[in-house]
Amino acid sequence: MTGSRRGRPGYDQESLLLVAVKLFNERGYDGTSMEDLSRKLGITKSAIYHHVRSKEELLRLAVDRALDGLFAVADEVQAGDGRAIDRLERLVRGSVGVLVDRLPFVTLLLRVRGNTKVERSALARRREFDRIVTDLVTEAAAEGDVRPDVDPAVTSRLLFGLVNSLIEWYRPRGGQPDTALADAVCAVAFDGLRRR
Amino acid sequence: MTGSRRGRPGYDQESLLLVAVKLFNERGYDGTSMEDLSRKLGITKSAIYHHVRSKEELLRLAVDRALDGLFAVADEVQAGDGRAIDRLERLVRGSVGVLVDRLPFVTLLLRVRGNTKVERSALARRREFDRIVTDLVTEAAAEGDVRPDVDPAVTSRLLFGLVNSLIEWYRPRGGQPDTALADAVCAVAFDGLRRR
Asked: What is residue A39's three-state secondary structure?
């Protein structure tokens, strides 16, 4: 609805969103006011409201960008066949891809704490995603492909804890293929770092 | 120096610190004022200053609690002998133990961003710890015990990314032995979740 509105030349909704997400990640969503954003952008608050209705709409657009990416991967994986452990690996690989491609959005998503309607809804979708992961681990365990000495719920948390921890240090470099990162994550998570 | 000072009955420096760290973790260090802390504690700001000189001193006490624990483990591991991969596993196991025992302190440490002197000094000590990890991974790789297809720097980041991600979901339960968690982390990190 607001996507086609035009404000001051130099910003469209997309470029405004990128600046807002960067600021939210630096100062926290709660700690960032529309006033702060207006100063950062060098445009008036009313110019911002040409593009988005509210700060919360910016948050919704941002976390949906992350969640839509993750659920696109999950849908594709769930529609596929093969052993659960291989689907799990595809899910991990695809999630690393989303994280790399949409790093600021995923970073913001992972810091959401649930104080507003948008945040609570994002947390609910994250829990839904976590359930998909746990179900896959449980299925893989039932197929005998996951080590039996670790609880599936703990395993899925460790697995996505590992994936999500990338936001703390990974910074995209131009020309660097992101498959190397996904390979490293899958190598460690599925086969461990010990040489055998 | 301030440890022996006594303020209003009901709080000593230790119990005040615990409340402060909980509040910092909920609202962010920057987002928490001494006024907020005073309201939360139900004592005046001047009563707080009987125990600590400043908000930054609270932060220093808190992050040192985490860092001193981690460096005690690192010192013990570095003084030990045996193959580097085994020392690395002891370092991971010990770090999970510190995280479990000192969860609010480690959580605060991992969120520190470096805006004050105390924060910059904490970040410097974190980087020193990371170097110890990377050196151990490099040594283990030279001994042929770490898979050769992943870069040691990436491996150490993944390894401690996994450990640090525990703050996002791990909540201590009374009577639960924490060795189960350290076992699960080491099982996944060193041998992978795939059954062989």
From this structure: helix
Tokens of A133: 């992961």
A47: left (phi over 0), alpha (psi -120 to 50) or beta: alpha
Q: List the single residue in A31, A148, A185 with the smallest CB-CB distance to B158.
A: A185
Task: Judge: A162–B158 Cβ closer than 8 Å, yes or no.
Answer: yes
- The backbone torsions φ and ψ at residue B76, rounded to the nearest 5 degrees and listed phi first, read -60, -45
Query: Residue B134 in contact with residue B153, Cβ under 8 Å?
Result: yes
Q: Determine the distance in angstroms separating the CA of B191 from the nearest CA of chain A, rounded to an integer.
A: 4
The amino acid present at B37, given as its one-letter code, is L
Of A137, A150, A162, Cβ closest to residue B161? A162
- Domains of chain A in sequence order: 13-53 (1.10.10.60), 59-191 (1.10.357.10)
Mean per-residue pLDDT, B164-181: 83
Q: Residue A5 region, left (φ>0) first, then alpha (ψ -120 to 50), else beta?
A: beta
Residue B128: partners with Cβ closer than 8 Å, 6 or more residues away:
none
**Closest to B182 (Cα-Cα) out of B105, B90, B102, B74:** B90
CA distance B10 to B3: 15
- Residues A74-127 have pLDDT tens digits of 999 999 999 999 999 999 999 999 999 999 999 999 998 888 999 999 999 999
Q: Which residues of B122-140 are buried (b: 16+ CB within 10 A; e: fewer)?
A: beebbeebeebbbebbbbb
Q: In whole angstroms, what is the distance from residue A95 CA to residue A53 CA?
A: 30
Q: Are B53 and B83 in contact (CB under 8 A)?
A: no
Residue the block writes with tokens 């808190």: B62
Neighbours of B111 (CB within 10 A): 15
